[in-house]
Amino acid sequence: MANWRVVFSGENHPYDNMAEDEAILTAYRRGKVGPTLRIYRWSHDAISLGCFQNASRVLNLTNCLEKNVPFVRRITGGEAIFHGNDLSYSLTLSNRDLALPVSVKDAFTVITEFILNAYKRLGIKCSFFSKACDKKSTFCFAKRQGFDVVVDGKKMGGNAQKRVDKNIVFQHGSIPFSLDVAKMKPFFIEDLSGIRETAIALDSILPSPISFDELSIKLTESFENTFGLSLKKEPLTPFELEIASDLKKEKYGNRNWLHKKTNVA
Questions:
Q1: Per-residue model confidence as pLDDT tens digits over 13-70
Q2: Cα Rg for the chain, rounded, in angstroms?
Q3: pTM of the model
Q4: Distance between CA atoms of residues 15 and 70, nearest Å
Q5: Which of the 8 DSSP states describes residue 189?
Q6: What are the residue ranges spanned by the domains of the chain?
Q7: According to the CATH classification, is domain 5-258 in 2.102.10.10?
Q8: Residues 6 or more apart in contact with residue 5 via CB below 8 angstroms
Q9: N or C, which terminus of the chain has less Cβ within 10 Å?
Q10: From CA 86, how far away is CA 179, in angstroms rounded?
Q11: Cβ 71 vs Cβ 59: under 8 Å
C-alpha cells in the first residue's frame, strides 16, 4: 500500500495556494512524494477561475482591482469559485493508489465519497446530484452536475479534476462555511441573485458553527475511514516549496497566465 500523507497548509495567498497544489503534483509525478491530501484556506477574499475561463468575460475586473479581491487561474477546468470563508482541499494520486475505475466520472464519484461521508458524520443528509447538468453558468455553485454533492437538492461546494499522464489524478475542491451573495455579486458579470436556489453552505445546515480546524479533522478521519488507510501528517518538502516559489512568480502571479485568452466564458 502507498505511503499516504496529509499536508495542513494553513492560510495562504491565492497565488501560493495554487502554486502549492501544482508543486505537489509535480513532486508526485517525479516520484519525490507519495499520494497526498492537502487541506488549506485562503488568506482573504479571492476568486479562482477554471483553467479555460476568460477573466474579462467572467469578472468585473475594475471592482476586483478597486476592492483588492485577487483572482487566480486553476489548472483544473470548471467554473469560478469565490473563496474566503471556505475550506479547500487538494488530492494528488494515481489510479492504483485507490484502485480507481477507468471512467473519469466513476473515479470522480469514488474519490468524492470521502466528502459525502464527512458530511454524514456531521449529521448532514446528502447525496450525489442525480440528473445531468441543469444549466449553464460561469459560477461554480450556480450549476449542478451528476457528480456534485447536494443537500436538499442544493449544491454543497465544488470540485474539479485534472488527469495527467493518463494514470495520475489531481482533484481539488471547496467547502463553503457560508454564502455571502451580497459580497460576491459586485465581482461577477453574471447576475448571482439566484444562487441560494441552487447552492447551500454549512451555516444553513448545521445547528451550530463548525471551525476550520474541526472540519479539517472530520475530512481527514473520513478519508482514512472511507478508503481504509492511514494518513501521516507532514509538511511540504523543500523540493515542493522551491517549485511552488517558482510557480508563484512565473505562473500564478503572472499576468499572462491570469489573463490568458480563451474561447470559453
A1: 999 999 999 999 999 999 999 999 999 999 999 999 999 999 999 999 999 999 999 9
A2: 17
A3: 0.94
A4: 9
A5: S
A6: 5-258
A7: no
A8: 33, 34, 35, 36, 37, 231, 232, 233, 234
A9: N
A10: 9
A11: yes
